[in-house]
Amino acid sequence: MNPSATQQPRHPGDEAAPGTPGSGEDVCPVCSGCGKTPDGKACPNCGGTGRIVEGIGGG
Ligand SMILES: [Zn+2]
């Protein structure tokens, strides 16, 4: 019964929750979409997905 239980985990680079109206995915600016840092570790900004969710329109 907890609405938040169905939401996907948020990453530090996400500006909005996945599926949020007015938001969209974009390539992570930290890892350029590869999902890893130059050290070969999972990118902390996007959680290793290489993509982040950005808010659009500043709503
Ligand atoms: Zn990243």
Task: Name the features.
59 residues, mainly beta, two-stranded antiparallel sheet, binds zinc ion
Task: Please give the largest β-sheet.
Answer: 2 strands, antiparallel
Q: What value does the average pLDDT take?
A: 82
The coarse overall form would be globular
Q: Could you state the order of secondary-structure elements as H and E?
A: EE
Question: Which class of secondary structure composition applies to the elements?
Answer: mainly beta
Termini Cα gap? 28 Å
Per DSSP E runs of 2 or more residues, the count of β-strands stands at 2
Quickly count the domains.
Answer: 1
What proportion strand? Answer: 15-25%
What binds here, in terms of ligands, is: zinc ion
What does this structure look like?
- This protein has 59 residues and is mainly β.
- It has one domain.
- Helices cover 0% and strands 17% of the residues.
- It is built from no helices and 2 strands.
- The chain has strands spanning 23-27, 51-55.
- It has a two-stranded antiparallel ribbon.
- The chain is globular and about 35 Å long.
- The N and C termini lie far apart (28 Å).
- 14% of the residues are buried.
- The structure holds zinc ion.
- Zinc ion binds next to loops.
